[in-house]
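Sat 14:20. Reprocessing the chain from the morning session after the first attempt stalled halfway. Input below, unchanged.
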Amino acid sequence: MNPPRPARIQEQAPPGPAGGLSPITRDRTRNRASDHVYDELVSAIRRLRLAPGSSLSETDIAERLHVSRTPVREAIARLADTGLVHVVPQVGTQVGLIRLRDVEEARFVRESLEVSAFEAACGNPGLDVGILRDLLEQQEHAYRTADYDTFFQADEALHSAIFTLSGHPGAWQVVQRMKLQLDRVRRLAQPDTATMRDLIDEHRLIVDALESRDIAGGRALISRHARRALERVPGLRAQYPHYFTA
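Finished this time. C-alpha coordinates:
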Protein backbone atom coordinates (compact mmCIF):
# COMPACT_ATOMS: atom_id res chain seq x y z
CA MET A 1 0.00 0.00 0.00
CA ASN A 2 1.32 3.44 -0.91
CA PRO A 3 1.94 5.83 2.02
CA PRO A 4 -0.41 8.77 2.45
CA ARG A 5 0.66 11.79 0.48
CA PRO A 6 1.18 14.85 2.66
CA ALA A 7 0.18 18.31 1.58
CA ARG A 8 2.51 20.15 -0.76
CA ILE A 9 5.31 22.02 0.93
CA GLN A 10 4.72 25.73 0.71
CA GLU A 11 7.49 27.67 -1.00
CA GLN A 12 8.67 30.75 0.78
CA ALA A 13 10.51 33.72 -0.67
CA PRO A 14 14.06 34.04 0.65
CA PRO A 15 14.43 36.57 3.47
CA GLY A 16 15.80 40.05 3.10
CA PRO A 17 19.21 41.45 4.01
CA ALA A 18 20.84 39.80 7.02
CA GLY A 19 17.46 38.54 8.17
CA GLY A 20 18.59 34.93 8.17
CA LEU A 21 21.65 35.28 10.39
CA SER A 22 21.92 33.87 13.90
CA PRO A 23 24.16 35.11 16.72
CA ILE A 24 27.54 33.39 16.81
CA THR A 25 28.41 31.20 19.78
CA ARG A 26 32.13 31.22 20.38
CA ASP A 27 34.02 27.97 20.98
CA ARG A 28 37.52 27.34 22.20
CA THR A 29 38.75 25.43 19.18
CA ARG A 30 38.66 28.37 16.76
CA ASN A 31 39.76 31.79 17.93
CA ARG A 32 39.25 33.91 14.82
CA ALA A 33 35.85 35.55 14.93
CA SER A 34 36.11 36.19 11.18
CA ASP A 35 36.10 32.41 10.59
CA HIS A 36 32.81 32.14 12.44
CA VAL A 37 31.35 35.07 10.53
CA TYR A 38 32.54 33.63 7.22
CA ASP A 39 31.00 30.22 7.96
CA GLU A 40 27.70 31.79 9.03
CA LEU A 41 27.51 33.94 5.91
CA VAL A 42 28.38 31.04 3.60
CA SER A 43 25.68 28.92 5.24
CA ALA A 44 23.13 31.73 4.97
CA ILE A 45 23.96 32.25 1.28
CA ARG A 46 23.90 28.50 0.52
CA ARG A 47 20.50 28.07 2.21
CA LEU A 48 19.05 31.27 0.73
CA ARG A 49 18.60 32.85 4.13
CA LEU A 50 20.44 35.67 2.35
CA ALA A 51 18.81 36.06 -1.04
CA PRO A 52 20.80 36.54 -4.27
CA GLY A 53 21.31 40.22 -4.92
CA SER A 54 20.39 41.33 -1.40
CA SER A 55 22.38 44.14 0.22
CA LEU A 56 24.70 43.46 3.14
CA SER A 57 25.44 45.95 5.89
CA GLU A 58 28.55 45.44 8.03
CA THR A 59 26.83 47.15 10.94
CA ASP A 60 23.66 45.06 10.63
CA ILE A 61 25.61 41.79 10.33
CA ALA A 62 27.81 42.67 13.30
CA GLU A 63 24.76 43.41 15.44
CA ARG A 64 22.98 40.21 14.43
CA LEU A 65 26.05 38.02 14.99
CA HIS A 66 27.09 39.83 18.18
CA VAL A 67 30.60 40.62 16.94
CA SER A 68 32.52 43.77 16.06
CA ARG A 69 32.67 45.11 12.52
CA THR A 70 36.31 44.08 12.03
CA PRO A 71 35.69 40.30 11.66
CA VAL A 72 32.67 41.06 9.49
CA ARG A 73 34.83 43.18 7.19
CA GLU A 74 37.46 40.39 7.03
CA ALA A 75 34.83 37.75 6.27
CA ILE A 76 33.24 39.86 3.54
CA ALA A 77 36.66 40.36 1.92
CA ARG A 78 37.10 36.57 1.79
CA LEU A 79 33.63 36.14 0.35
CA ALA A 80 34.40 38.76 -2.29
CA ASP A 81 37.49 36.78 -3.31
CA THR A 82 35.29 33.74 -3.96
CA GLY A 83 32.66 35.75 -5.84
CA LEU A 84 29.91 35.03 -3.33
CA VAL A 85 29.51 38.72 -2.61
CA HIS A 86 30.36 41.84 -4.59
CA VAL A 87 31.69 45.03 -3.06
CA VAL A 88 30.97 48.04 -5.24
CA PRO A 89 32.56 51.34 -4.16
CA GLN A 90 30.01 54.07 -3.38
CA VAL A 91 27.23 51.50 -3.77
CA GLY A 92 27.72 48.83 -1.10
CA THR A 93 27.99 45.06 -0.71
CA GLN A 94 25.59 42.60 -2.27
CA VAL A 95 25.17 38.83 -2.25
CA GLY A 96 26.25 37.47 -5.62
CA LEU A 97 23.66 36.21 -8.06
CA ILE A 98 23.42 32.52 -8.96
CA ARG A 99 25.88 32.04 -11.83
CA LEU A 100 24.59 29.46 -14.26
CA ARG A 101 28.04 28.52 -15.51
CA ASP A 102 29.03 27.75 -11.92
CA VAL A 103 25.89 25.64 -11.45
CA GLU A 104 26.81 23.50 -14.46
CA GLU A 105 30.44 23.23 -13.37
CA ALA A 106 29.34 22.15 -9.89
CA ARG A 107 27.10 19.51 -11.42
CA PHE A 108 30.05 18.22 -13.45
CA VAL A 109 32.36 18.05 -10.42
CA ARG A 110 29.74 16.46 -8.18
CA GLU A 111 28.71 13.86 -10.73
CA SER A 112 32.31 12.95 -11.60
CA LEU A 113 33.49 12.62 -8.01
CA GLU A 114 30.37 10.88 -6.76
CA VAL A 115 30.53 8.26 -9.52
CA SER A 116 34.16 7.65 -8.59
CA ALA A 117 33.26 7.46 -4.89
CA PHE A 118 30.50 4.94 -5.66
CA GLU A 119 32.91 2.76 -7.61
CA ALA A 120 35.48 2.92 -4.81
CA ALA A 121 32.83 2.09 -2.18
CA CYS A 122 31.79 -0.96 -4.20
CA GLY A 123 35.36 -2.21 -3.78
CA ASN A 124 35.32 -1.73 0.00
CA PRO A 125 35.63 -5.26 1.46
CA GLY A 126 33.95 -4.14 4.68
CA LEU A 127 31.07 -2.39 2.96
CA ASP A 128 28.10 -1.84 5.28
CA VAL A 129 25.19 0.28 4.03
CA GLY A 130 23.42 0.35 7.41
CA ILE A 131 24.02 4.08 7.90
CA LEU A 132 22.60 4.73 4.45
CA ARG A 133 19.47 2.75 5.30
CA ASP A 134 19.06 4.81 8.47
CA LEU A 135 19.34 8.03 6.46
CA LEU A 136 16.73 6.76 4.03
CA GLU A 137 14.38 6.28 6.96
CA GLN A 138 15.04 9.87 8.05
CA GLN A 139 14.10 11.00 4.56
CA GLU A 140 10.93 8.92 4.68
CA HIS A 141 9.96 10.62 7.94
CA ALA A 142 10.69 14.04 6.43
CA TYR A 143 8.49 13.10 3.48
CA ARG A 144 5.60 12.06 5.72
CA THR A 145 5.84 15.27 7.74
CA ALA A 146 6.61 17.55 4.74
CA ASP A 147 9.81 18.69 6.48
CA TYR A 148 12.02 19.95 3.68
CA ASP A 149 14.91 21.10 5.89
CA THR A 150 15.28 17.68 7.51
CA PHE A 151 15.02 16.03 4.11
CA PHE A 152 17.78 18.25 2.73
CA GLN A 153 20.06 17.49 5.71
CA ALA A 154 19.50 13.74 5.39
CA ASP A 155 20.10 14.00 1.64
CA GLU A 156 23.46 15.70 2.23
CA ALA A 157 24.39 13.17 4.91
CA LEU A 158 23.62 10.23 2.61
CA HIS A 159 25.84 11.51 -0.17
CA SER A 160 28.58 12.34 2.33
CA ALA A 161 28.36 8.81 3.74
CA ILE A 162 28.99 7.32 0.29
CA PHE A 163 32.26 9.25 0.13
CA THR A 164 33.15 7.97 3.61
CA LEU A 165 32.46 4.39 2.50
CA SER A 166 34.70 5.00 -0.51
CA GLY A 167 37.61 5.77 1.79
CA HIS A 168 37.83 9.36 0.52
CA PRO A 169 35.71 11.47 2.88
CA GLY A 170 37.75 14.58 2.13
CA ALA A 171 36.56 14.51 -1.48
CA TRP A 172 33.07 15.39 -0.24
CA GLN A 173 34.48 18.62 1.18
CA VAL A 174 35.74 19.47 -2.31
CA VAL A 175 32.24 18.83 -3.65
CA GLN A 176 30.73 20.99 -0.89
CA ARG A 177 32.95 23.94 -1.77
CA MET A 178 32.18 23.59 -5.48
CA LYS A 179 28.43 23.12 -5.30
CA LEU A 180 27.32 26.18 -3.37
CA GLN A 181 25.69 27.70 -6.45
CA LEU A 182 24.03 24.35 -7.20
CA ASP A 183 22.73 24.17 -3.63
CA ARG A 184 21.15 27.59 -4.03
CA VAL A 185 19.24 26.25 -7.03
CA ARG A 186 18.19 23.19 -5.03
CA ARG A 187 16.96 25.36 -2.16
CA LEU A 188 15.12 27.67 -4.50
CA ALA A 189 13.42 24.68 -6.11
CA GLN A 190 11.88 23.39 -2.89
CA PRO A 191 10.21 20.17 -4.03
CA ASP A 192 6.62 19.22 -3.57
CA THR A 193 6.06 15.89 -1.88
CA ALA A 194 5.79 14.06 -5.21
CA THR A 195 9.32 15.19 -6.06
CA MET A 196 10.52 14.22 -2.59
CA ARG A 197 9.07 10.76 -3.18
CA ASP A 198 10.98 10.48 -6.45
CA LEU A 199 14.23 11.61 -4.82
CA ILE A 200 13.90 9.10 -2.00
CA ASP A 201 13.18 6.32 -4.49
CA GLU A 202 16.29 7.30 -6.45
CA HIS A 203 18.35 7.30 -3.25
CA ARG A 204 17.05 3.85 -2.37
CA LEU A 205 17.99 2.51 -5.80
CA ILE A 206 21.50 3.96 -5.40
CA VAL A 207 21.88 2.31 -2.00
CA ASP A 208 20.57 -0.99 -3.39
CA ALA A 209 23.08 -0.80 -6.24
CA LEU A 210 25.87 -0.08 -3.77
CA GLU A 211 24.91 -2.98 -1.54
CA SER A 212 24.90 -5.36 -4.53
CA ARG A 213 28.11 -3.74 -5.85
CA ASP A 214 26.41 -2.97 -9.16
CA ILE A 215 28.89 -0.45 -10.55
CA ALA A 216 27.28 0.01 -13.96
CA GLY A 217 23.80 0.45 -12.51
CA GLY A 218 25.02 2.80 -9.81
CA ARG A 219 26.89 5.01 -12.25
CA ALA A 220 23.76 5.48 -14.36
CA LEU A 221 21.62 6.21 -11.31
CA ILE A 222 24.04 8.77 -9.87
CA SER A 223 24.44 10.55 -13.21
CA ARG A 224 20.69 10.89 -13.61
CA HIS A 225 20.27 11.97 -9.98
CA ALA A 226 23.02 14.61 -10.21
CA ARG A 227 21.37 16.25 -13.21
CA ARG A 228 17.88 16.46 -11.76
CA ALA A 229 18.27 19.97 -10.26
CA LEU A 230 19.31 21.42 -13.60
CA GLU A 231 15.96 20.41 -15.07
CA ARG A 232 14.33 23.05 -12.84
CA VAL A 233 16.60 25.93 -13.88
CA PRO A 234 14.53 27.28 -16.84
CA GLY A 235 11.40 27.49 -14.70
CA LEU A 236 13.27 29.05 -11.81
CA ARG A 237 14.86 31.66 -14.05
CA ALA A 238 11.42 32.61 -15.30
CA GLN A 239 10.06 32.82 -11.73
CA TYR A 240 13.10 34.56 -10.18
CA PRO A 241 14.85 36.35 -13.07
CA HIS A 242 16.61 38.78 -10.71
CA TYR A 243 18.37 35.91 -8.87
CA PHE A 244 20.33 34.58 -11.86
CA THR A 245 23.17 35.59 -14.13
CA ALA A 246 24.97 33.76 -16.91
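The chain has eleven helices and five strands.
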